[in-house]
Amino acid sequence: xTFSVEPLFPIPIGFSKLExxxxxxxxxxxxxxxxxxxxxxxxxxxxYLNKHKILKNFTEFCSNSxxxxxxxxxxxxxxxxxxxxxxxxxxxxxxxxxxxxxxxxSFISAVFYVNCEDNLDNITFIKKGYQQLQIYxxxxxxxxxxxxxxxxxxxxxxxFPSSLTHKVEPVQSNKTRISISMNTFPVGVxxxxxxxxxxxxx
Length: 202
Hints:
This protein has 2 helices and 12 strands; from the N terminus they run E-H-E-E-H-E-E-E-E-E-E-E-E-E. A hairpin with an 8-residue loop joins strand 11 and strand 12. It is mainly β. It has helices spanning 24-31, 56-74, and strands spanning 14-17, 35-37, 42-44, 80-92, 98-101, 108-115, 122-126, 147-151, 156-161, 165-168, 177-190, 199-201. The mean pLDDT is 96. It is globular and about 55 Å long. Strands 1, 2, 3, 4, 6, 9, 11 and 12 form an 8-stranded antiparallel β-sheet that branches. The chain has a single domain, classed as Jelly Rolls (Sandwich), CATH 2.60.120.620.
């Protein structure tokens, strides 16, 4: 018997590495931002880090990576790009975690890892929705799993659809886990005039 399986409508996860890493002054700035309580960790009070001059190069790296992901996936016919709408920092000490959530009012989201422990820290993506039948699997793969864990490393940017549910398990390391999250929205020409789906966003 000849048999094959082809992935259909897969959920794309992008990975982009900031090879040079953050400059010491950029990292120090992020470490010393004023913080506010989150569900089970801390977050920066400032939710618009992308507007700060000191993080201009970092924001440019994120924007370029997000738009590369967007263009590769969607191959837009007309002039449309992603604009970062908000950017904020997250701080998690040992035992703290990040609750299960999505990113409303955003199209593509991303998270960059400033400080983390290799081989211990990770991000979990969750498949939600109605499950018609529940069949217990002996071996898990990307077709039968209900969640999937990606290990994370410092200076790594992970990009994903904003509707994709995700969480962070309790931090195991004594090293403070610091990440920067961001949301985006497309600007330019969406849809098509002839199909009566055109929407121009500026």
